[in-house]
């Protein structure tokens, strides 16, 4: 049987190995995006709305960090979590938690940089109105995040795309342990090198399908929101 | 809405606003009292918008002081402004007003009634659920007026609110301005449209190069302007 046919069969018969890998991948990447959003959106808002010494340099750095090499992040998180590292006693290395940490580090600059741009553009538009209405600083941030929510979804999508597609960081800190830390990307890399193409192709198809579905849902959400909120 | 004449007069004492080497307002002194709308007129760059922004507290004077009824610190609820191009929040027309009511600390229980009243005042009763950003330019300007009035101001500043509107939309805005003024709210409006100034003004302030060159009751101003700058502006000649 050609590998493409076998791959399709694995997807259609809900092969447990394949779906366990898909499930773990989604848990890790979505957890990382949620954590990165909790850090990145407030950070983006802070940089957008405050003036401090070195702000321009910080923005350049934040933008540059969007292109962080995953293997470098993997190495840095590995050093942090390894037995001799500062966070070694937590015993997180080679666990899904370590993979979440690595992906959070990768995704946070993306969400923070895109959020900053969105919130700063909106602030330029709203500044006079909110100031004239004597809206306080916390209410301003809440307003800008709420009114920019449809654009911020794009930032989250970009972060999810980065997390779901990367392999370099999680293979270093997760170890690609079968049944424990094996995700779609690490499994594709491994199975391809082993010559087990059906599983690799099956995972690749599922990965692309997930990315398309999530983007389509977000796009529909954004369109519906814009129709309702303007 | 109720007038709070105790907030007036607004007094500008030798107010200068500088941007680099340029004085946008140049030692300007002016007293704005209660009564019919005050129209601030003058060519582009005369300082009309800056004057309103300084009064609102959006720009701090480089020199000089602005007082309200003799007090330099202005309680926020006492004034509101409508900008030439108001920003519409990304929510419905009604929720734009609700936002202003929240910001002004009006109890939630009173929001729906107040929103209905304000939408009716500006003729947008049927548009409450529409996204504000989908309204036409004239409708947005009227919504901005309703949003400003949500603060129950005693003074309403209007920065060329009809500058980019067609005659029908301009009339709708001017009718609201008259209705607002009739309720005792002091209107201070910048415009470079002399016809509009004639239609609405109780008194006229002419600005040129950041200074007040004339300040007089409207009928007197249009009948016999005192200064050469005012005569030039009234004649439709270029005031350089």
Structure description:
The complex is a heterodimer of chains A (230) and B (240). With 230 residues, chain A is mainly alpha-helical. Chain A has a single domain (3-229), classed as Orthogonal Bundle (MetI-like fold), CATH 1.10.3720.10. Helix content of chain A is 80%, strand content 0%. Chain A has ten helices and no strands. In chain A, helix 1 packs across helix 10, helix 4 packs parallel to helix 8 and helix 5 crosses helix 8 (168-174). The model of chain A has no long low-confidence stretch (mean pLDDT 92). Chain B has one domain: Rossmann fold. In chain B, the strands form two sheets. A six-stranded mixed beta sheet of chain B has the order 5-6-7-3-8-9, sandwiched between helices. The model of chain B has no long low-confidence stretch (mean pLDDT 92). In chain B, strand 1 (10-19) and strand 2 form a beta hairpin. Chain B has 240 residues and is of the alpha/beta class. Classes of the chains: A mainly alpha (230), B alpha/beta (240).
Task: Describe what is shown at a glance.
The complex is a heterodimer of chains A (230) and B (240). By secondary structure, chain A is mostly helical.
């Amino acid at each position: 049987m050609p590998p493409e046919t076998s791959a399709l069969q694995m997807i259609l018969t809900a092969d447990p190995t394949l779906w366990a890998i898909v499930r773990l991948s989604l848990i890790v990447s979505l957890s990382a995006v949620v954590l990165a959003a909790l850090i990145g959106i407030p950070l983006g808002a802070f940089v957008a709305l405050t003036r401090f010494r070195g702000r321009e340099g910080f923005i350049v750095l934040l933008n540059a960090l969007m292109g962080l090499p995953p293997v470098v992040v993997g190495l840095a998180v590995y050093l942090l979590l390894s037995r001799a590292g500062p966070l070694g006693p937590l015993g997180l290395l080679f666990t899904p938690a370590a993979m979440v940490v690595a992906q959070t580090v990768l995704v946070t600059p993306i969400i923070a940089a895109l959020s900053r741009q969105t919130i700063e553009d909106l602030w330029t538009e709203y500044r006079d109105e909110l100031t004239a209405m004597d809206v306080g600083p916390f209410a301003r941030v809440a307003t800008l995040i709420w009114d920019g929510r449809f654009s911020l979804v794009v930032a989250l999508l970009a972060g999810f795309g980065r997390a779901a597609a990367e392999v370099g960081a999680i293979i270093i800190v997760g170890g690609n342990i079968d049944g424990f830390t094996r995700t779609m990307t690490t499994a594709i890399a491994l199975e391809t090198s082993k010559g087990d193409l059906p599983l690799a192709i099956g995972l690749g198809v599922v990965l692309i399908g997930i990315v398309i579905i999530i983007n389509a849902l977000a796009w529909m959400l954004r369109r519906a929101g814009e129709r309702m909120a303007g | 809405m109720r007038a709070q004449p105790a907030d007036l007069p607004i007094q500008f004492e030798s107010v200068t606003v500088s941007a680099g080497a340029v004085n946008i307002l140049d030692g300007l002194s002016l007293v704005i009292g209660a009564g019919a709308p005050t129209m601030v007129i003058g060519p582009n760059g005369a300082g009309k918008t800056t004057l309103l922004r300084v009064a609102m507290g959006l720009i701090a004077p480089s020199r000089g002081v602005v007082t309200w009824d003799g007090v330099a610190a202005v309680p926020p609820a006492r004034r509101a402004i409508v900008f030439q191009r108001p920003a519409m929040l990304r929510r419905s027309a009604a929720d734009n007003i609700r936002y202003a009511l929240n910001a002004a600390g009006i109890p939630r229980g009173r929001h729906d009634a107040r929103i209905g009243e304000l939408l009716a005042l500006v003729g947008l009763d049927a548009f409450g659920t529409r996204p504000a950003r989908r309204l036409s330019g004239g409708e947005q300007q009227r919504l901005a007026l309703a949003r400003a009035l949500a603060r129950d101001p005693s003074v309403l500043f209007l920065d060329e609110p009809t500058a980019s509107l067609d005659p029908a939309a301009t009339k709708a805005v001017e009718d609201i301005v008259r209705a607002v003024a009739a309720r005792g709210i002091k209107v201070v409006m910048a415009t470079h449209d002399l016809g509009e100034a004639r239609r609405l003004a109780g008194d006229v302030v002419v600005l040129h190069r950041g200074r007040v060159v004339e300040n007089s009751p409207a009928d007197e101003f249009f009948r016999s302007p005192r200064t050469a700058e005012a005569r030039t502006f009234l004649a439709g000649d270029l005031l350089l």
